[in-house]
Amino acid sequence: MNTILLREQLTQFLIEDIGYGDMSSSLIDPNDQAVATVVAKENGVFAGQAIVAALASLQQLTVEWCTADGTTVAPGEPLVVLKGDTRTILETERVLLNLIQHVCGIATKTRRCVEALADPTIQVVDTRKTTPGLRMIEKYAVRVGGGQNHRQRLDDAVMLKDNHIVALGSIRAAVEAARKQVGHTTPIEVEVETFEQLLEAIEAEPDILMLDNRTPEDLKKWIQHVPSHIRTEASGGITLETIATYRGTGVDVISLGELTHSVKALDCSLNLQGGMKDAIARHTTPNVR
User: pTM of this prediction?
Assistant: First the structure.
């Protein structure tokens, strides 16, 4: 996590939401202090310590952790406590919750995929199908959930997909062009969709083979032809509901776009201590401030 970039992004998110000032919170005495608790409202995996810490630093709030990244949480469970100016807590609330709910949702989906696959020989990874501007944060959440990251950007690695191969003439020509242009530290990955393409790609000797839209049965057969020094990645149409069928296929990596592109947020709330919602969450008698 690039903390410098994170602070810049969070600053922009706060500017977007606060505008020229929080008109509602401005009604509160500027000297008023409060304690607020962020609470999970459904089962999931917590992620977001880096985000909360950076936001609290920017907004001069004090943080007390109730749980750590990667921890399984249940409804009503406190995640983090914030202390500071009441106005500041309330003007920070929406940005904090929007991000925490989103990254917790990603971490939860990732954890469920890893557990459903139940194959420690295969890494579960994300893709570049991320929300523009949130890639670093979303890929952080995947790691918290027990997954790994695919390339961060287009300049991380050469990935020769179908359109590149069409434009360059063949798999062999594409790999040769890549090898002439990139340095020895840049990996080359080739996407294949047919058995004929697989054999052509193996002869070209890339670092990684992406086996696209193949059934688990196909993968088990194809893997037998791939030399051990070439890593393999299964991709295309794999979901939480189907990932278990890829257990034992022999691939090194499974990539899933749904870890980030269509994830459901984990419902959370921020409640000032002493209020009705805080009392309900904590199963106590409300003591309105």
Answer: 0.92
